[in-house]
Amino acid sequence: MDRIREEKIQRFEEFVDRRLKPDLVHAIAQRDKVFEQQKIFSDLKRNIENLERNSVTSLSTLVNLGSEVYMQADVPDTRHIFVDVGLGFHVDFTWSEALNYISAREEKLDRQIEDYTRLIASIKAQIKMVCEGIRELLQLPESS
Amino acid sequence: MAEGLKKKGTVKSLSSLFPPEETQKASERVRDTIAERHEELQQLKSFISDNTNLVNLVRTLPNELNHQIMVPFGKAAFFPGQLIHTNEFMVLLGDGYYAERTSKQTVEILKRRGNILESQVESLKADIQDLKTEASFFENEAGRKDLVEIVEDYEEESSLQEVSKAGDSKADFASSTEAESKGTGNEGDEYARIFSRIAELEKEEEEAEKDEDDEDEENEDDIDHSVNQDSVDQESISCGVDGSKLLPVYQDGSSQDGTPASSKPRFTESSIKPPVRKENVRAPAVTKEEVFVRTSEPSTNSSKAFTGSIVEHTRNLETNPREPSVAHSSKPVSRFRMNRK
């Protein structure tokens, strides 16, 4: 009887340690990536709005050549902007088009974040449930 | 590894020293470390190739007045544009400071960075080589039955002998070891202290020449501070005759003692010590005067005073050369012990 229980507990613990916890770490990393994307696009949106507000048509900036070496660059016409739409494709947008695209993209990112958050919550719930099962098998008093 | 083996000349076979499981674990760990180092090396190499690419780019950019490029705008967007002022670079020097450099100057900076990376690669390679030797030891040598480890504690033995040699004066030995254990930096302090003490004593003697009782107390103090109780007794016995005899004896003694005191240490002691010795040699000169002065004084008192002064200064002469030598011989002992602890 005791041996069976011990084996069960061991199987549960292995499930938590080898399956659920790596899953959780992975899901959190994925969500962080999406957060990053969200930040990039919100920055871009703010910048474009800035350009619009100040009606900037030409721009001079510094380009990073790598290893923090910069060179001056000149943009004669800022009304056309190439935005990364994924898979290495860039689309030539005007400002308003770009803003429309960005808001659609942000919506999608928000949904993704929500999905990941839900996934993380469910993994956490599973971990908690398995731990509770182990506790019952060990017949320990309730901790919390 | 062989901390437990402190007996003289222990012989153990290597395979018994390293149990196979432990050997396996160790070699695994070493191999892991090697893999880690290889990753680091790979990273450094990618840095180096980036750097050389950048050097080439920086070299070729000023060839033309402007270059058509896509100017990045944030991480997800670009503008079509061009590079202007192609011979002006802003280079990060570190800590948020940038410098405006020409193409040539930038190439120089980048080459220096490349050299640093190369040296890092070299040190990493040496590191990997060391680890590989370690791994090969665990894999090949540690398991062999025909290899033995011989452990012999040489220093322990020699230090014990020196302890017994120097052991005739325990108090001084303790104080000297204390002084030594503080390190070489405190040796100077120690001698400075002795120095100042001697000067102090001389001054006191000059001031209190007529006050014999005080003088005696001082002498006693001095005896307490100096080392060898047996030698003190012998000295006082040999010198403890009447005043007329004492004077030549003392003069001879001082001159005899003076020469070995000055000549001995030059052969045996380190260069820091002679100054102290000179001070000692000078000391009897002062006391000689005292002795002459005292001969004019009442005989009972003078004989008392003589024994006292003679005891003091012969003591200083005899023991002081000895004292540092004791300290000297005890030096390895204390350091060795420090290391052991």
TrEMBL record, chain A:
<dbReference type="GO" id="GO:0006457">
    <property type="term" value="P:protein folding"/>
</dbReference>
<dbReference type="Pfam" id="PF02996">
    <property type="entry name" value="Prefoldin"/>
</dbReference>
<dbReference type="InterPro" id="IPR009053">
    <property type="entry name" value="Prefoldin"/>
</dbReference>
<protein>
    <recommendedName>
        <fullName>Protein UXT homolog</fullName>
    </recommendedName>
</protein>
<dbReference type="GO" id="GO:0009409">
    <property type="term" value="P:response to cold"/>
</dbReference>
<dbReference type="InterPro" id="IPR004127">
    <property type="entry name" value="Prefoldin_subunit_alpha"/>
</dbReference>
From TrEMBL, chain B:
<comment type="similarity">
    <text>Belongs to the RNA polymerase II subunit 5-mediating protein family.</text>
</comment>
<dbReference type="GO" id="GO:0009409">
    <property type="term" value="P:response to cold"/>
</dbReference>
<dbReference type="InterPro" id="IPR052255">
    <property type="entry name" value="RNA_pol_II_subunit5-mediator"/>
</dbReference>
<dbReference type="GO" id="GO:0006457">
    <property type="term" value="P:protein folding"/>
</dbReference>
<feature type="region of interest" description="Disordered">
    <location>
        <begin position="158"/>
        <end position="283"/>
    </location>
</feature>
<dbReference type="InterPro" id="IPR004127">
    <property type="entry name" value="Prefoldin_subunit_alpha"/>
</dbReference>
<keyword id="KW-0175">Coiled coil</keyword>
<protein>
    <recommendedName>
        <fullName>RNA polymerase II subunit 5-mediating protein homolog</fullName>
    </recommendedName>
</protein>
<feature type="compositionally biased region" description="Polar residues">
    <location>
        <begin position="226"/>
        <end position="237"/>
    </location>
</feature>
<feature type="compositionally biased region" description="Polar residues">
    <location>
        <begin position="252"/>
        <end position="262"/>
    </location>
</feature>
<dbReference type="GO" id="GO:0005634">
    <property type="term" value="C:nucleus"/>
</dbReference>
<feature type="compositionally biased region" description="Acidic residues">
    <location>
        <begin position="202"/>
        <end position="223"/>
    </location>
</feature>
<feature type="coiled-coil region">
    <location>
        <begin position="107"/>
        <end position="141"/>
    </location>
</feature>
<keyword id="KW-0539">Nucleus</keyword>
<feature type="region of interest" description="Disordered">
    <location>
        <begin position="313"/>
        <end position="341"/>
    </location>
</feature>
<dbReference type="Pfam" id="PF02996">
    <property type="entry name" value="Prefoldin"/>
</dbReference>
<dbReference type="InterPro" id="IPR009053">
    <property type="entry name" value="Prefoldin"/>
</dbReference>
